[in-house]
Specification:
The structure holds 2 protein chains of 2 kinds. Chain A is mainly α. Chain A has one domain: Serine Threonine Protein Phosphatase 5, Tetratricopeptide repeat (Alpha Horseshoe), CATH 1.25.40.10. Chain A is 68% helix and 0% strand. By secondary structure, chain B is α+β, with helices and mostly antiparallel strands. Among the domains of chain B are: 97 residues, Penicillin-binding protein 1b domain (Penicillin-binding protein 1b fold), CATH 3.30.2060.10; 191 residues, Orthogonal Bundle (Penicillin binding protein transpeptidase fold), CATH 1.10.3810; 110 residues, DD-peptidase/beta-lactamase superfamily (Beta-lactamase, 3-Layer(aba) Sandwich); 60 residues, no CATH class. The longest helix of chain B is centred in the first third of the chain and has 33 residues. Classes of the chains: A mainly alpha, B alpha+beta. The interface between A and B is large, with 34 and 42 residues.
Chain lengths: 175, 770
């Protein structure tokens, strides 16, 4: 009797544990890991008119970065924010721009802002989290903190191998 | 005879010596000018470009006015030339001109915009029909930093100009320019003959070189001495410099009339003013018109005297044809052209305070000399539409206040105010008006004045109390504050704060205390949290002025500028991320190189959850509290704001934000004196009108709680959790881990626990995380 009740108790506890695990797992804000990493093009046609225009300007900025015109790219990211100052992808693009440049600390500020704004996006596009993690790693690496950067870059690599296998996110890969 | 000859020789020698001496002296003057900086070119300040996109309300942004100011002209039929447009029912054709911008060089682009009501429905390339997501228009001129002569010019290079432009000028001003040596004797004799026959001065005989010399070095007086100097200097200039250099200098120097108080000089500026285009893009007819008005820019102004201007233009065209400079077909086509000048819009006067603020933000090496002479292009953050709106709103609303409250209308020291608008996420200054009249006083009350902040400071006290700082916060939104009598001992005696209504309200919920702007509750809260902590929070948010560590700091005794309050509120609006205030984006030198850039700089200084909580309370200020006049004004959507009235109602403030715009308004007298009305009647109406017109009355976006903020049902009386069975309940926001543990008294007093109550205790109070 006591053995049986002990098994039952153990099963009950295990069940509770599983339920609990389900309950306390981080909310699925960022969604399951996608098959391909996030690109700005995934948002085509989404959002209100200001957001759509802002994303178009961002795409042109990323083209500028990809073609080696960083100051033009920067200007277009700022124009994108002029149209929609709450566009998280504009801050993401700014963070990417600065992560490998001369101002990696600035990239961290932009990432923080992008992350905060992304929390309000519904739905959050799958795969963005990999870029947030990876860019934070890249910025920390550029800022001379490789010990902090390495696990983040490794995590980004696992989450989005198509974009982060080389430890960096190019403008084309975000475009 | 010999004596006479000797005398003559001596006189000749003396004259020759005198002329030679004069020539050496004048040569020095000529060289100093030509080999130094030839022209002083004022630096121009340009607005942020207007960006057009599908879905945009083009009436709200004042697109028609922008296009007129940018010099776009209607063209009724045919293929549009750059700078032309055509409004049709439901459509706007526009051939956007090419322009240089630090963001990127924009090529000319002919587009068709579909319009649905007041909105842009689509933007497509005219030829291909390809959809365009966003179209940039040229930035508008905000103003310029002029030297003492207030001359505006845009330098051109001879090599950039079309041959017909040079031909037009030479045809009418100096047809033998390429062959004479500074003085055209044939023309002098011809002019003399005409003038003698008519008995008055009808024709001048000056060459281009002489005109240049006259403008550069001499006064307009008509005397033999001056004429001799002019002739001598013209010969020197011709001897020293190439014809191309002389002509280029002339084309950049010619006077083309006035634009308000500014003198327009040079063909480049004239092309921009009269045709809204670069000199390189002028047609033969347009070139002829500019050449025509050189003789008398004001008397032949195509705006004021179109018929006289046309006659003279036609004369120039015929001279060009007669001298073989244009063919018959061009002559015929150009004669048939209408004058086609763009509307002259006065240089904006609304942005003078902004120009000064921008100048103060520039690095010190951009001194007055540089700014007034080196022809920099300064690309600013200013939204010219909002700037005009801000200036008009402030002026008209102050006048309205004076009419409504005649004691505010004072002759010697009139009622003043200021308005500053920022974009919270980027720190861009979108509008700044530092007073009701720049002509009256240039003191910028937005960035230079420091006035007691009053209650607009209180949110910083609440932030200090709501912020967890690694432990439990001092209060939550379910807390109750004591608004009973308070006495604080200070070195200068006992301090006893009072409320605006002269009453004490006892224990009140946190929200109500701030919504109704209770002084005593805020003062006590500041004492509990610590004045140092309150000051530290204000600093972090963006306040830079001195903050005296006195108990009254909590109710706004510190003197702050509207701009720093705007920055601190921007930090709250941006979820705790503090932006650096920016008035400029890029500075480009006369060669087109970007020599200065001010990028967006942001820094997290407050956790997002706390920023959200204070925003949530400040939304209540607008919905129920001292700022409810905002709703009464018809503004819908997310708005958070705070009124502020300093001691004896000397300063009236209204500071508030939407998700995308922070606006601070101050009203008061320069010599502090009581307004006799609270901020809700003095400053709020200005804020409300500005934001209403800026946003169209409906504010975009939302203030959404971050992930670490949850919503819990609480009992508004006890501040405890409200579970099922509690008689009173409202939802309140809490940072994760700060929800009240206690349950409402009625629930706790209930006899025994009903089945399932433990579930209610654990989950009942939870509603949502957002």
């Amino acid at each position: 009797m006591s053995e049986r009740s002990g098994r039952a108790r153990a099963a009950f506890l295990m069940g509770l544990l599983l339920i609990g695990a389900g309950c306390v797992a981080p909310p699925g804000a960022w969604g399951p890991a996608p098959e391909r990493s996030f690109r700005l093009g995934d948002l085509e046609g989404q959002g209100d008119p200001a957001r759509r225009a802002s994303n178009r300007l961002l795409a042109e900025g990323l083209d500028g970065d990809a073609q080696g015109r960083p100051s033009q790219a920067l200007g277009l990211y700022e124009r994108a924010l002029q149209v929609d100052p709450t566009n998280p992808y504009a801050f993401l693009a700014l963070a990417r721009h600065h992560a490998e440049g001369v101002a990696p600390r600035r990239a961290l500020s932009f990432l923080d802002k992008a992350e905060a704004l992304l929390e309000r996006e519904t739905p959050v596009p799958p795969g963005v989290e990999a870029h947030l993690v990876g860019l934070r790693g890249a910025a920390l690496h550029a800022a001379g903190r490789p010990e902090l950067a390495a696990p983040m870059l490794e995590r980004a690599r696992r989450m989005a191998p198509d974009a982060w296998s080389d430890g960096r996110l190019s403008a084309r890969e975000l475009r | 005879m010999r004596v006479a000859g000797l005398t003559l020789a001596l006189v000749a020698f003396g004259a020759g010596f005198f002329v030679a001496q004069q020539a050496v002296k004048l040569d020095r003057v000529v060289r100093a000018r030509f080999e130094g900086q030839l022209f002083r070119v004022p630096s121009r300040v340009l607005s942020a470009p207007t960006i057009l996109y599908p879905g945009l309300d083009f009436e709200r942004i004042g697109l028609r006015g922008s296009l007129v100011r940018l010099g776009y002209r209607e063209q009724a039929t045919g293929e549009l030339a750059p700078g032309r447009l055509r409004w049709e029912p439901g459509r706007l054709h526009i051939h956007r001109r090419a322009f240089e911008h630090p963001t990127r060089p924009e090529p000319p682009r002919s587009v068709v915009m579909g319009m649905a009501g007041t909105r842009i429905d689509s933007i497509r390339e005219a030829g291909s029909g390809r959809e365009i997501g966003a179209l940039l228009l040229e930035p508008e001129l905000v103003g310029a930093y002029y030297g003492p002569n207030r001359e505006q010019r845009a330098l051109v290079r001879l090599s950039e100009l079309p041959p017909h432009l040079v031909d037009a000028v030479l045809a009418v001003e100096d047809q033998r320019f390429l062959t004479h040596r500074g003085i055209d004797f044939r023309r002098v004799l011809g002019a003399l003959w005409v003038n003698v026959r008519s008995g008055r001065v009808r024709q001048g005989g000056s060459t281009v070189t002489q005109q240049l010399v006259k403008n550069f070095f001499l006064t307009p007086e008509r005397s033999l001495k001056r004429k001799s100097q002019e002739a001598l200097m013209a010969l020197i200039v011709e001897a020293r410099y190439e014809k191309e250099e002389i002509l280029e200098a002339y084309l950049n120097e010619i006077y083309f009339g006035q634009r308000g108080s500014t003198a327009v000089h040079g063909i480049g500026e004239a092309a921009r003013l009269y045709f809204g285009k670069t000199a390189g893009a002028l047609s033969p007819g347009e070139a002829a018109l500019l050449a025509a008005i050189i003789q008398s820019p004001n008397g032949l102004s195509p705006h004021r005297e179109p018929e006289a201007a046309r006659k003279r233009r036609d004369l120039v065209l015929r001279l060009m044809h007669g001298q073989g400079r244009i063919d018959a077909a061009t002559l015929t086509a150009s004669l048939a052209e209408p004058l086609g000048v763009a509307a002259v819009t006065p240089e904006p006067r609304e942005a003078r305070y902004f120009l000064d603020a921008l100048r103060r933000q520039l690095p010190t090496f951009y001194g007055a000399e540089t700014l007034t002479s080196e022809g920099l292009q300064i690309y600013s953050t200013l939204d010219l539409r909002l700037q005009r709106l801000a200036a008009r709103t402030l002026r008209e609303e102050l006048e309205r206040l004076e009419r409504s409250f005649p004691r505010l209308a004072r002759e010697e020291s009139p009622l003043q105010g200021c308005l500053v608008a920022l974009q919270p996420q980027t720190g861009a200054v979108l509008a700044l008006v530092g007073g009701r009249s720049y002509a009256m006083t240039q003191f910028d009350r937005c960035s230079q004045a420091r006035r007691p902040a009053g209650s607009v400071f209180k949110p910083f006290v609440y932030v200090a109390a709501l912020e967890p700082r690694g432990g439990q916060p001092h209060i939550t939104l379910a807390s109750r504050l004591d608004d009973g009598p308070l006495e604080v001992r200070t070195t200068s005696g006992a301090w006893r704060p009072e409320n605006y209504d002269g009453e004490f309200h006892g224990e009140v919920p946190v929200r109500e205390a701030l919504e109704r702007s209770m002084n005593v509750a805020a003062a006590r809260l500041g004492q509990e949290v610590g004045v140092d902590q309150v000051a530290a929070v204000a600093r972090r948010l963006g306040v830079t002025s001195r903050l005296p560590r006195v108990p009254s700091l909590s109710i706004g005794s510190a003197d702050l500028s509207p701009l720093e309050i705007a920055r601190a509120y921007a930090t709250l609006a941006a979820g705790g991320v503090r932006p650096a205030v920016r008035t400029l984006e890029d500075v480009v030198d006369a060669e087109g190189r970007t020599v200065q850039r001010q990028s967006i700089e942001i820094e997290r200084v407050l956790d997002e959850g706390t920023a959200f909580l204070i925003t949530s309370i400040l939304q209540g200020v607008v919905d129920r509290g001292t700022g409810r006049g905002i709703r009464a004004a018809g503004i819908t959507g997310p708005v958070a704001a705070k009124t502020g009235t300093s001691d004896e109602e000397r300063d009236a403030w209204f500071a508030g934000y939407t998700p995308e715009l922070v606006v601070v308004v101050w009203v008061g007298f320069d010599e502090p004196s009581s307004l006799g009305i609270p901020a809700s009647r003095a400053a709020l109406p200005i804020w409300a009108r500005f934001v209403s017109e800026a946003t169209g009355g409906h504010v975009r976006g939302a203030f959404l709680p971050p992930a670490d903020v949850e919503q819990v049902a609480v009992d508004p009386v006890s501040g405890a959790q409200a579970l099922a069975g509690c008689p009173r309940s409202r939802l309140e926001y809490f940072l994760e881990g700060t929800r009240p543990e206690a349950v409402c008294p009625e629930w706790a007093r209930a006899d025994g626990e009903a089945p399932g109550r433990w579930i209610d205790r654990v989950f009942g109070g939870w509603r949502s995380r957002r």
